[in-house]
Write a structure and sequence with these properties.
Keywords (chains A, B): Glycosyltransferase, Transferase
Oligomer: homodimer
Structural class of chain A: alpha+beta
CATH architecture of the largest domain in chain A: 2-Layer Sandwich
CATH superfamily of the largest domain in chain A: Bira Bifunctional Protein, Domain 2
GO molecular function, one term (chains A, B): histidine-tRNA ligase activity
Strand order of the largest sheet of chain A: 1-5-6-12-11-10-7-9-8
Number of strands of chain A: 16
Protein name (chains A, B): ATP phosphoribosyltransferase regulatory subunit
CATH class of the largest domain in chain A: Alpha Beta
Order of helices and strands of chain A: HEEHEEHEEHEHHHHEHHEEEEHEHEEE
Largest sheet of chain A: 9 strands, mixed
GO biological process, one term (chains A, B): histidyl-tRNA aminoacylation
CATH topology of the largest domain in chain A: BirA Bifunctional Protein, domain 2
Largest interface: A-B, 95 and 95 residues
Distance between the termini of chain A: 51 Å
Radius of gyration of chain A: 25 Å
Shape of chain A: elongated
Helix content of chain A: 25-40%
Chain lengths: ~375, ~375
């Protein structure tokens, strides 16, 4: 084993230094406070669990994406959580199975993956969000979207837009009003993902052409989708989306991409992605889904997750605390008074201490905090 | 591999449910805010590092105490941090080696160990604290003690007491004014640990008898230790302890156990344990120590750590947020107004929702939040 430089960290793992470490904490605090005002109560699952339990509940992570280790105590394979939503689902269906529904839970903490993505190479990420368990109605989804927008606002994200999607629409259409053999559905979805109109024709699925054209601003999308002759399967969803859009449009931009499935494989009737000005890529996502109890009972749910690291990178969460240097001999009651006024006091502990070098903008001169 | 019950967690790993999860976050926030007002800036190292780097810096944790795994990306053995102070030391001596001293850093986050202790069987714990890097003078230690007391006060801990210790005193005495062969020092220390007066006599170390009698309330302890005829080695330390005690005695109880070494093996001239009323065992500890740069350069430092879980268990950090139930059809502007007033709003999303069952104490009646 060759030496590893003492300051070196494994790929995808990083220190957050000042002021970013504080920003991350500030953002998490802002999001959790916003969710708490909507009645979401915090749960804090452990960083590691039995791999078998974690894999069984993970919605979009495969076993090979997990950081695993053999626990010397239990002699079992444990895995670090790559996502907290599966753990919240476990809590909701076990220790909180008897708690009144809808159960509103919030969470925030570190998650770890084997590999990051090209856009986001970090392997340790700060994930936060909520799950509303016991319902996936329009009212439930509308609430979760409202909480998500309040959370992003509290975090200082501006220029927010929401991209809605209908994850199980294509399957429902193919199985019903716009029939297509089940074994052709994957090809159909590939054509829709690629906006491949010619492919749809070749597949004998021209009825699906309006789905390609529909993606875009919500009003135009809804109008185009209304032209699909597909009865309740589409009308119910469009009515629901229309209600959701009405709740969103006065606050944020809304688009609809009815066939977008990437990352929504486990969502049921509705999914959404959250975007913010100046932040590359998606900053959060969510939607409706089903959780399964140990006895096989299914329960509807809806939730959202936000990853805070891109917000930190975009400079959000910065709180400038004024730093005042206290020369040697400054009375402790003076120092306490300045702290009570919101100053960070930086006390000299020897003649050599220098306020400017220690990041102070002010210095106590015996009477007041004077600019340095 | 037999089945694992879906709700089962590995030994020593737990979910924090409402309200404890929120309490833990509230306590961490309180401590970090208190340290920030003293100019300590937060760093957030990753949950896992190269084992080799972590082991090299760990002060009191051995390799077999680490939860380790092979990272599929680097093909190296990584370890989950069992302690954050070693990581803060790494940051201070690498990426922040060039930052002005004294360097004041704060940290808070989860740590994981292979095994808990009998008193504290948890393997995942929430650790927080500060490190002041670049000095271990009396002024530096006094500041760190003051920050620790402010942090405990902010966390709501009452009846705090500080037990001071002089970790390297016995070694220094044996090597100097109260000579004893180096190979007999471990036996000497065992006698002192066991308050074994007869053992000291048998060892020909009667000169050390006053150290046994001295442990206790600070003034009495200092008085008894002054009777040791050991020159500067003891006088310097007692003068320093006397100054530290003067800074503490108006806020908290202070004791001195001059030979206590358990858990202070890596501390230099001063160590301390923190206790609080109604909380079993030690709630925090700290002291002076030496960190080593990659080039061999040594730097003095002082810090403290608090583990927040016992505080959560003792019921600290609880913040009762008033919960008001909003019947179906309550206007969103009413809801927003209530949230702005500090209420947690719990909105009905169907006719079946019941405010009392959902933990609400109040219900919006169209005019006001009325008690349920």
């Amino acid at each position: 084993m060759t030496d590893i430089a003492p300051g070196l960290l494994p790929e995808g793992l990083h220190d957050r230094l000042p002021p970013e470490a504080e920003s991350a904490a500030t953002l998490l605090r802002a999001v959790m406070d916003a969710t708490a005002t909507h009645g979401y109560e915090r749960v804090q699952p452990p960083l590691a669990e039995f791999e078998a339990n974690l894999v069984g509940r993970l919605k979009s992570t495969r076993q090979q994406d997990l950081l695993r280790f053999v626990d010397p105590v239990s002699q079992r394979t444990l895995a670090l959580r790559p996502d907290m939503t599966a753990q919240v689902g476990r809590i909701a269906t076990t220790r909180m199975a008897g708690t009144a529904r809808p159960l509103r839970l919030a969470y925030g903490g570190a998650v770890l993956k084997v590999r990051g993505t090209q856009l986001r190479p970090e392997r340790e990420m700060l994930q936060t969000g909520v799950e509303l368990i016991g319902s996936d109605t329009v009212a439930a989804v509308a609430e979760v979207l409202r909480v998500a927008l309040d959370a992003l606002e509290a975090a200082g994200v501006t220029g927010v837009s929401v991209d809605l999607t209908l994850p199980n629409l294509v399957e429902a259409l193919a199985a019903g009003p716009m029939p297509l053999a089940a074994d052709k559905v994957p090809e159909l979805q590939a054509c829709l993902d690629g906006k491949d109109a010619a492919g749809l024709t070749a597949l004998g699925a021209d009825a699906y052409q309006p789905l390609i054209a529909a993606a875009g601003p919500i009003d135009q999308a809804l109008k185009r989708l209304r032209t699909l002759n597909a009865g309740d399967v589409i009308e119910e969803r469009l009515d629901a989306v229309s209600i959701l859009a009405d709740g969103l449009r006065n606050r944020v931009g809304v688009t609809l991409d009815p066939t977008e499935r990437h990352g929504f494989e486990y969502q049921s009737w509705i999914g959404f992605s959250l975007f913010g000005e100046g932040i590359p890529g998606e900053i959060g996502r969510g939607g409706s889904y089903t959780i399964v109890h140990a006895d096989g009972r299914e329960e509807k749910a809806v939730g959202f997750s936000i990853y805070l690291d891109p917000l930190v990178s975009a400079g959000l969460g910065r709180s400038e605390r004024r730093r005042v240097f206290l020369p040697l001999g400054t009375d402790e009651s003076v120092a306490a008074g300045l702290r009570a006024q919101g100053w960070a006091t930086v006390a000299a502990i020897s003649q050599g201490c220098n306020g400017t070098k220690l990041g102070c903008t002010h210095q106590w001169n015996g009477l007041e905090a004077a600019p340095l």
